[in-house]
Please model this.
Amino acid sequence: MYNYEWDRLKTWLDQYGAIEAGIESAQDIVRLDLSGNGLKSIPENIGMLSKLISLNLSNNKLQELPDSLSKLSNLSNLDLRRNAFENFPAVIGKLSLKSLNLSSNKIADIATLQECSELRVLDLSNNLIKEINFSFPHANNLITLNLSYNFLREMGVFFFSLSYLQRLNLNANLIKEIPAQISKLSFLKEFEIIENHLETIAESLFELPLEKLSLSSNRLTQLHLDGLSSLESITLDENSFESLSLGAGFAPHLREFSCESCSLKEFLLPASKVLQTICYSDNDIEEIPSEIGQYLNLKELDIDENSIRELPDTLANLSYLETLYANKNPLSEEAKKVVMILDPEICDLNMKTGIVVEKAKEEDLSQMAQLLSVLFAIETDFKIDYNKQLAGITRLFAHESSDLLVARYEEKVIGMLTMQRLISSAEGDYVGQIEDLVVEEEYRKMGVGSRLINKMRNLAQEHGYKRIQLAADVDNKNALQFYNRRGFNKTHLNIYHYQIS
Model:
């Protein structure tokens, strides 16, 4: 009977290319990837895989799991994202999982989690969770929790039972308050609560050992920042502050400070002497204090879209500054001279000497296909397949209605950008669809992406396009900020794919 059941299971796994040649028994399988196969069910005999450690069932159409899954006593990692679960699978409570991903389903009730005390990493983002009215076992091991894109209205007792939590993501919920009980998360290092309804924050938050704090796109109007002695990065973008102030002891080791679109009139100066990035774009600031020169490690300064006429001479002290974004300011001629003292090209276009942006050549295509693997490693909707990417970029190159740009350094393609012509019924004319913007990691923060975008804008104008548009991975925050700062506005549309073959 055993061999018969194994033969049946092996035949089923083979049809999805899930196991390699040479697998002789169920005990030989320790990792199994059945993602993206449109599966509606999993056979009961999967419980035979007693040595299985990792199971990937993502991107299918599953609504339930077989009870036999409870036999997989070694299963540590289970990926169920992007399926059709409406209920939290009860069998999960019988497993000793360390990592569970149930993101992008339709789950509202997660009470079964009470039985999952060994979990260390849990992703429940993009579900229908409105409340969590239970506590986790006191001896739980949860370190990373993602509950973004749900409908939570408060941080209740559940959160404060997570004694060892280090990373918490509550982005895109409906939370109005960070309560005083946040102090119970005494190991919390990273906290993201972007796109909520935050109005008040308990002072106990600033006593935590946070290294990264993201509070963007909320309803904060009053905030005094102090403490946070371990903080390295804070993002406050898109809050309409009536009052924002910094205590003398605030974040002495801060490296990144961002206040984009915060209705600020004053350029606040954090006390940290190791700051590397400051962003005050899209505010009402008229003056930069001369004390800016104290940030000797500063690499990026973004003051786009303010009312700044003059720049202090002390900017010339910033010998490590690589990029200065200063567009849409009424800079005087004297201010422009300060920029020239720093570097003639540092303002928005701090390019390493010798980098050229130009139209792609046929001999560039193989390097461009390799670059796409860098992009698709970030954008989870796509898979890396060099042959497919080469075929696609080659067809794109040959198509008369497309434009391909490359950034080249010493004959090596280190960046690329593509655009295709589409017909828009809304515009009644042609538009440009920008795709595949990627720059090799070692050449980032040098303005390469800005130059590619600017040149493609010029091409779009030459072609007479009514607009240019693009899609970006919702989890790629760096890319989203990059496009926002270059004039691209987020729409209310979601992108859907229907795979033909």
